[in-house]
Amino acid sequence: MSTALKLTVDGLKAGYDGKVVLEDVSMRVAAGEIRIILGASGCGKSTLLKNIIGLERPLAGTIEILGSKVDWSQGRPSNDLMRRIGVLFQAGALLSSLTVGENVALPLRIHNPGLPMAVVDQLVRLKLEQVKMGHAYDKLPSELSGGMRKRAGLARSLVTDPELLFCDEPSAGLDPVTSRGLDDLLLELRESLGITMVVVTHELDSIRTLCDRMTFLSQGKVVFDGGLDQAEANGPQEVKDFLARKPEESKHTGRTVAFNLEDG
């Protein structure tokens, strides 16, 4: 694994309508790493994600993605930077009126409007095959199971070949078998594509399967940053208690996050 940094967050302060949700949050994510962001409901996980991917403007602090500072001075961060990242939203965020193939093609049409249709089609089919969804090209989202919608959303997040992938509660709402299959797929994609991932989750099975390092948030602050073994052996008691829950208890600690990522 390369030691090059793909994401740097320094002294981030974030909030809404005069309320501070995050205070002095910092983390560094290395190339090829799967970083887990976790903590109890309302700790600020999704607020952190929204600020990193440019959906919300930080109150203070700096964020660097792939070596470039996220710059709000001219309005929202540039498409040139944002096209180099992928985002898998919790519910997949597929447009119901479009087929799976059309949904996956959307980022290409936005960021590369001059691409020939044949090239777009080839790339879409390739990404669907990578997530084992090649058979669903012509299907509508309403014809898919929850796990299939997540995979289709994953294909869309990968279609521009991003170097950095953000996943918001990828296993939320899935049964254990489907959830494990999605976790295994993320590991396969990390191996085959060399992609760096930041995953927001409260699912214990997913944490144990995916985690290289974790950033644990509590009351808007980072209370632990390190590996899973270190967290369980020497982490703060709050972190140990969180990780010691029974797996079925983790199903009830999150909350639904809509397309625009509610705070949580």
Walk me through the structure.
It contains nine helices and ten strands. With 264 residues, it is an alpha/beta fold. It has a domain of 171 residues: 3-Layer(aba) Sandwich (Rossmann fold). Helix 3 crosses helix 4. The longest helix is centred in the C-terminal third of the chain and has 18 residues. The radius of gyration is 18 Å and the shape is globular. The two termini are 31 Å apart. The C terminus is likely disordered.
Write the layout of secondary structure elements.
Blueprint: E1 5-16, E2 19-30, E3 34-38, H1 45-52, E4 60-65, E5 68-69, H2 79-82, E6 85-88, H3 100-111, H4 117-130, H5 146-158, E7 164-168, H6 176-193, E8 196-200, H7 204-210, E9 213-218, E10 221-226, H8 228-234, H9 237-243
User: Any idea what the CATH superfamily of one domain is called?
Assistant: P-loop containing nucleotide triphosphate hydrolases
Which geometry do the CA atoms define? globular
- Strand line-up across the major sheet: 6-7-8-3-9-10
**Helical content (DSSP H or I, runs of 4+):** 25-40%
Keywords:
alpha/beta; disordered C terminus; six-stranded mixed beta sheet; 264 residues; four-stranded antiparallel beta sheet; 10 strands; globular; Rossmann fold
